[in-house]
């Protein structure tokens, strides 16, 4: 994708009006549900430690000794608010990721993230579906566990399959067979299977919810106490696009620190620099994060689906190519 010197915006005036209307509709949805809008910092001393995410970073002349990071999500700051005030909250604002640029990806995008006190994963999934029906209209809903998805589309159990079994299964797909043969990390193989093989097979006219991800992909989700092989994590897909990623949130500070440490071990194994972790999130959990569930939903992608747009550049006032 090439950068452009064209001064004109990416989106038409009609699209900008529809975008503004959807922002208003979402805010009305949360006002009706008595969820407080908050506005946390985009710039922070700490970034994300996740192996698969990278922050954009900068320096400030007043603090020359350290880097500051544009946030990939407002999650850490929002959880500090949850621990301090114990109220359901949402944020609708810009985030940044040093990631691919393409039809569904822009480094700067608008994220809708919200947290519901005393909600389970299932209750939050129900609320996500309520919002999607409001925006997209009634659609069939497919609700499957991660294990069910792999068994249905690949005839393999992702919770039991060995690395060799996963490689053998995925070697049937020529467009990834070379990559699969070189890959020895189990979760990377599972993520390749999900993103490249399985996701394109989801019914584009339906909303697909995949829940109960493997514990190794729990991220910041609680583990299922009745089956610790899986976590209370879910993802939502519609129109061939991943829209949302949510958790029944981890509240244990020691487990959170252990996951941060594991993130950095994985980064070292993949020849990526380790990241300083945001100890303030751990402190917030130590002080008492209330039981809650949270989800992050890509606003620009949702808007694309609502308006039948083919490229994220059509949904943005200025995409990265002309920003």
Care to give the gist of this entry?
This protein is an alpha+beta fold.
Structure description:
This is Elongation factor P--(R)-beta-lysine ligase. Homodimer. This protein has 323 residues and is of the alpha+beta class. It folds into 2 domains: 13-140 and 203-315, BirA Bifunctional Protein, domain 2; 151-200. The chain has 10 helices and 13 strands. The protein has helices spanning 13-32, 75-85, 121-136, 146-154, 163-170, 174-182, 186-198, 253-269, 279-288, 299-307, and strands spanning 36-37, 43-44, 56-60, 63-70, 89-96, 108-117, 141-145, 207-211, 223-224, 227-231, 233-238, 241-248, 292-298. The strands form 3 sheets. Strands 1-5-6-13-12-11-8-7 form an 8-stranded mixed β-sheet, sandwiched between helices. Strands 2-4-3 form a 3-stranded antiparallel β-sheet, with no helix packed on it. The protein has a two-stranded antiparallel ribbon with strand order 9-10. Helix 2 (75-85) packs parallel to helix 9, helix 5 runs parallel beside helix 7 and helix 8 runs antiparallel to helix 9. The longest helix is centred in the N-terminal third of the chain and has 20 residues, at 13-32. The chain is globular and about 50 Å long. The two termini are 13 Å apart. The mean pLDDT is 96.
What layout of secondary structure does this protein have?
Blueprint: H1 13-32, E1 36-37, E2 43-44, E3 56-60, E4 63-70, H2 75-85, E5 89-96, E6 108-117, H3 121-136, E7 141-145, H4 146-154, H5 163-170, H6 174-182, H7 186-198, E8 207-211, E9 223-224, E10 227-231, E11 233-238, E12 241-248, H8 253-269, H9 279-288, E13 292-298, H10 299-307
Parallel strand pairs: 1-5, 7-8
Antiparallel strand pairs: 2-4, 3-4, 5-6, 6-13, 8-11, 9-10, 11-12, 12-13
């Amino acid at each position: 994708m090439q950068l452009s010197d064209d001064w004109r915006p990416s989106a038409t005036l009609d699209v900008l009006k529809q975008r503004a209307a959807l922002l208003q509709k979402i805010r009305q949805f949360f006002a009706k549900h008595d969820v407080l809008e908050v506005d946390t910092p985009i710039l922070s001393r700490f970034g994300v430690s996740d192996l698969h995410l990278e922050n954009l970073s900068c320096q400030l002349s007043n603090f020359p000794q350290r880097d500051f990071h544009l946030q990939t999500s407002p999650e850490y700051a929002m959880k500090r608010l949850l621990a301090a005030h114990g109220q359901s909250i949402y944020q609708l604002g810009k985030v940044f990721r040093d990631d691919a640029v393409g039809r569904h990806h822009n480094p700067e995008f608008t994220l809708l993230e919200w947290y519901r006190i005393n909600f389970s994963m299932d209750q939050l999934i129900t609320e996500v579906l309520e919002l999607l029906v409001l925006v997209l209209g009634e659609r069939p809903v497919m609700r499957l566990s991660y294990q069910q998805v792999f068994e249905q589309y690949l005839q393999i159990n992702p919770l039991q399959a060995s690395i060799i079994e996963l490689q053998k299964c995925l070697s049937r797909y020529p467009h990834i067979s070379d990559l699969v043969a070189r890959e020895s990390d189990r979760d990377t193989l599972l993520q390749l299977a999900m993103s490249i093989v399985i996701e394109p097979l989801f019914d584009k006219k339906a909303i697909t919810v995949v829940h109960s991800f493997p514990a190794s992909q729990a991220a910041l989700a609680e583990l299922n106490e009745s089956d610790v092989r899986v976590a209370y994590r879910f993802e939502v897909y519609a129109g061939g696009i991943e829209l949302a990623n949510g958790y029944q949130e981890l509240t244990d500070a020691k487990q959170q620190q252990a996951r941060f440490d594991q993130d950095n071990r994985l980064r070292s194994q993949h020849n990526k620099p380790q990241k300083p972790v945001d100890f303030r999130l751990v402190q917030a959990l130590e002080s008492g994060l209330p039981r809650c569930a949270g989800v992050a939903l890509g606003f620009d992608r949702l808007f694309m689906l609502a308006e039948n747009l083919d490229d994220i550049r059509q949904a943005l006032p200025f995409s990265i190519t002309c920003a």
